[in-house]
Amino acid sequence: MLELSALGLLQWQPLHGYRLKQLLELFMSSYISVNYGAIYPLLKRLEERGQISVIAEEAGDAGSPRKIYGITAKGRELWRQKMLEHPKESWVNSGSRFKIKFFFFGYLEPAERLKLLEHRLRVCYIRQEYIESLKSEYPLTDNYQFAARDRCNCVLESEIQWLTEQLAQEQSVAEIADFAKV
What we know:
Blueprint: H1 2-12, H2 17-28, H3 36-48, E1 52-59, E2 65-71, H4 73-84, H5 91-103, H6 110-134, H7 143-181
């Protein structure tokens, strides 16, 4: 998810490592953990693979120059591939991944956004059915357990409602775009 986030932010604007970390913390800290021990090796890896390149250097606070990175065509291709994939992962990670993807929806085509929204909505409904199916198998025994389950259900229902609204908006945008093509 860090790679997806970093490439997405580098599409927005060229950045040096410190600024990239600041923006990741600002926009993605609810979904991923960001530390310098991960940022600089990631930038090095992406540069070695030709997915980003150093486009400038500026004086740093400690005297050594800061490398400003920009995304390459190869990096954009990797980013798009990561945006459209649906890796098999835990419920928590899939939720975090989707929210990161949503932040970058503006870089996708309407049809791609629709597919991602529809997929996430299906995943949420599957999760809701799964939780419901476990109720009789694992009965709760105290008020804290009931409160925790109710909170989880509330969060899931809220996400389903939000996704439904986003999907309706996106369908309207897609319809307008299709009408404009005619």
